User: Fold this.
Amino acid sequence: MKKFKYSEITPEKIYNNRRTFLKNLGYGIGGIAFANNALANTDLSKPTSYKDITTYNNYYEFGTSKGDPYKKSQDFKTRPWTVRIEGEVEEPIDLPIDEILNSFPSEERVQRLRCVEGWSMIIPWMGFSLSELLNKVKIKPEAKFVKFESVYDPENMVGQRRAVLNWPYVEGLRLDEAMHPLTTVVTGLYGKPLPNQNGAPLRIFIPWKYGFKSGKAIVKIELVKKMPMTAWMWASPREYGFYSNVNPNVNHPRWSQATERVINGEVFSPRVKTLMFNGYGDEVAHLYTGMDLKKNF
Ligand code: MTE
Assistant:
C-alpha cells in the first residue's frame, strides 16, 4: 500500500505555513509522524481537499446544513478557552488551551472519517493521543467511562438556539477506548490551526467509530462510573448506539451502512465498500473480544 507523503500533495503555500505554524507552536519537525500505524490497513493515499474538509461539515451548533458551520462559525471566539478534566480523578484540573497546545506536541495523523450518513473523507489532522492528556490526572479505579462535553454558548452558536439536540453536545467512550493511542485530540488540519467549523480549538477524533462520536469544541472531559447518555442516544436510541463502531454488517434502521461515498472533489465521488472498524481492525478489534457488535451497535 502506498504510503502518504505530506509534501507530495500539499500545496506549497500550505506546506510553508505549516512549517511556520509548527515552529510557532514549538512542534519539533523531527517529531512529526508522516504516517501512523493505521496506514498499514487503510488506503489513506489521497487526502480530501482542504476546501471539502472545511466547507462540508456536521456541526449542529452552527446549523444543520452542510454549509452552515463554515458560513456561521467564522466569528466564533476560541480564546480564552479552558478544558476541565474532572469526575473520578484524584484532583480535577483546568487547562488553558494554549498550555495544552504547547505541552503536547502534535503530529500529523492522516485518518479516515466515516460519517453515519454514508460518506467519508481522508483527513490529515494534527493531533496527539488523548491518553497523554488524560495522564495529566490521576484516574481513580472506579472510572470506567469518559464523557466529553462540547461548549454551550447559544449567544454565539446560532444552532443552539433551537432544540435540535439536547445541548450541550455530549459524547462518550469506554475508558480503554479513550486510552487507545489512535484516539486523538485534534489541534490542527493540513498543518494549520484547526478551523472553527472543524471543532476549534480542540476536538476528539476516534477513527474506527462513526464521525458523530468525535465531539467538537470540547470544554469538559469527565471520568465517570457509568456509561454516559450521549446527545445522539438521547435524540434517537434506536438509531445511535453508544459504541457506534463503523460496521458494514449493522445497518442504520433507515439505510444500509455497507458502502460509502468518498468525498474527493470529483462530481461523482466513488462508492467503496465500508470496512469493519473503518479499516483499523488490526489495531482495535481486541477491545471488543467476546462482545456481540450487533447488539452493541
Ligand atoms: N460535535 C459537535 N459538538 N456538534 C456536532 O454537531 N457533529 C458530529 C461530529 N462532532 C458534531 C460534532 C458529526 S455527525 C460528524 S460526521 C463530525 O463531527 C464531522 O466532523 P467534520 O465536520 O470535521 O468533518
About this structure: The CA atoms of residues 129 and 182 lie 6 Å apart.
